[in-house]
Amino acid sequence: MKPRISSIFLFIAILVGCASQEDVMMIDYRLSEIERRSQTLEQDKAKIEQTLEEKDQGLRTQSAGLHANVTRLHQEIQRLNGRIEELDHRLQRLIKSAETSSSKEDLKLERLEKMVQRNQERIMATEQYLSIETTKSGARKPVVASSRPASPTPPKMSAVDTYKAAKQAFDQNDYDKAREGFRKLISKHPKSENADNAQFWIGETYYREKWYEKAILEYQKVIEKYPRGNKVPASLLKQGLAFSNLGDNANARLILKELIRKYPRAAEAKIAKQKLKEL
Asked: If you classify domain 159-278 with CATH, what class do you get?
């Protein structure tokens, strides 16, 4: 484009006879400067667009986290309300039962008194059998207990043993025990090579129990605390599936696309692509 413009100006200059070779060179220099500035502006524009896109992605990720927190709180409130209603119902039944069974309680108390009396008699008989003498003032001489070796203190479990025990509980569907073990590992051995795996399995216990809001938050801890761990792609995938199970397909698509973009060669990315087709 520049050579054509220069030729045109040169041709015009020759025709009118008012342009020297120096004028033509000056025009050519200015055209080159305009093109250079145009390229610089295009590059600046591309950088600005990329920065805006990255900020938009960050805002979307934060929005997904906030939405998960809000959903979890709503779920927790619903569960607490249900628990309160259940406890109130039980309390009413207990009050009604207590009012109609006062005679039974009296009978139980009488039986308890008889049991206490029999136990006292047995204690006295046992003391006589052991030849526990009583002083004139009525005080009993203490019986010297035989010395017994103290039970050995159980050895402390290593990080590997703690992880194996928690994983075994997980495989046996004992999710409460598994969570306790994984959290113990993270607390006592935070630098263990299995710490990120333990955090991921905590999220899996909640996912298996269909408590998807809690699972999303636990998976997020894997992503934030162990960004270089091998469980980050799996955590992103399970976050997307958890959002999908909650009916939040918008956030599900957002998370799955992020997984494909960051880890295109991971096995989880293939699953994410298939899931996106279904959403």
From this structure: mainly alpha
Residue 131 backbone phi and psi in degrees, to 5: 60, 45
Half-sphere exposure of 169 (CA within 13 A, CB side): 19
Per-residue pLDDT tens digits for 112-137: 667 656 555 655 554 444 444 344 34
Contact 219, 251 (CB under 8 A): no
Asked if residue 177 has pLDDT above 80, the reply is: yes
Task: Tell me the pLDDT of the chain averaged across its residues.
Answer: 79
Establish how many alpha carbons lie within 13 A of residue 210's alpha carbon, considering only the half-sphere containing its beta carbon: 2
- Report the Cα 41 to chain-centroid distance in Å: 44
What ranges in the chain are assigned the alpha helix state H?
Answer: 2-16, 21-100, 102-129, 159-171, 175-188, 195-208, 212-225, 232-245, 249-262, 267-278
- Sorted by where each begins, the domain ranges of the chain are 1-36, 91-136, 159-278
Q: Is the pTM of this model over 0.70?
A: no
* Core vs surface per residue 235-274: b (16+ CB within 10 A) or e: bbbbbbbbbbebebeebbbbbbbbbbeebeebebbebbee
